[in-house]
Amino acid sequence: MFSRISLEQWRAFVSTVECGGFQQAGEHLYKSQSAVSHAVGRMEQLLGQELFVIEGRKAVLTPLGQALLPQAKHLLGAAQKLERLANQYQPGLFTEQALAVDVLFPLDLLQQALLDFAGHYPDHRIRLYETALSGGRELLEDGKVELAIASSLPPGCVQVLLLNVSLVCVVGTGHPLSQVQGELSLDDMKPYRQVVIRDSGTRHSQNSGWLGTSQRWTVSSLAAAESFVERGLGFAWLPQHRVRDGLRDGRLSRVALQHQREREVPLYLGYPEAYRHNPEVKLLAQLLCEQCRLWNPDSAYGVACTSE
Fold it and tell me: CATH number, domain at 34?
């Protein structure tokens, strides 16, 4: 039996939520407000229940609408990926693995896992999204990736804890903070410029850690943040595994803080329940877990990975 609700109707529904109303959704989709409203209304007729209720001038999701929204996003993302694969089709190169990986995740672990994966599936294409904060969660929600590594994942997906990344506060060796005697409070840090990494997500935009200084430079990549700090342009909390060489070589210095000297960020691996028995997703998840276990073999979370 064919679906009675078209992709265009699902797109109208999702856009109404994300844009904040029928008029805004119409502008986003280059349609009239009435066309979007009619598409959603037709969906409600087919489902026999309301997706929205009007409160004032705003369309608010009903419990049914809230329940359907995550799957609707995933449906649209999967359809978009299928169309892209069809457009790019070449004999023997029809399969693709898409994954989102938080920039805090150790790059050497990712590279080795992908290399091992290529040994099993040499013809698979890899589409890698480097994300920060909520970016990976959104890509997984939208069906644009099969697997994500992030500090926060959407509810309902299969997920395991991979590892905890330690962030340390560092500056370039020529920075005034590297010359301070004694321990500093966070209030002492306020006059100095902080370098932070922008959230790559748009819907669940969030901050992480202390942002107490008004002199803030926001960048889009971990590499940019590292370069800025090393050149003495500000301080930042950066992954310990990324700054280890700089600290050893004397290019970087740790800031002597009274509190928050280090912050632990848990990184989880997750994928939709529908992919639990997908051999490619299952293998890649297993390889990533194995690399994390080797990277820190004494951790307790290696057991959780092997159970999947």
Answer: 1.10.10.10
1: in domain: no
Q: Which residues contact 87 (CB under 8 A, 6 or more apart)?
A: none
The reported pLDDT for the residue numbered 194 is: 95
Does residue 252 lie in a domain region?
A: yes
Residue matched to tokens 């089709």: 89
Cα–Cα distance measured from residue 230 to residue 274, given in angstroms and rounded to the nearest whole number: 44
As a whole number of angstroms, the distance between CA 224 and CA 215 comes to: 17
Q: Which positions ≥6 away from 248 have C-beta within 8 Å?
A: none
In degrees rounded to 5, what are phi and psi of residue 250? 90, 10
Residue 308's pLDDT band, with cuts at 50, 70 and 90, is very low
Place of tokens 């109303």: 21
Q: Which domain holds residue 241?
A: 166-265
Q: CA–CA separation, 30 vs 33, rounded Å?
A: 9
> For the whole model, what pTM was predicted?
0.71
CA–CA gap between residue 303 and residue 185 (Å, rounded): 38
Select from 17, 5, 144 the least CA-distant residue to 74: 144
Averaged over 81-98, what is the pLDDT?
A: 69
Tell me the pLDDT tens digit for each residue of 267-280. 999 998 888 888 89
**Helix, coil or strand: residue 139:** helix
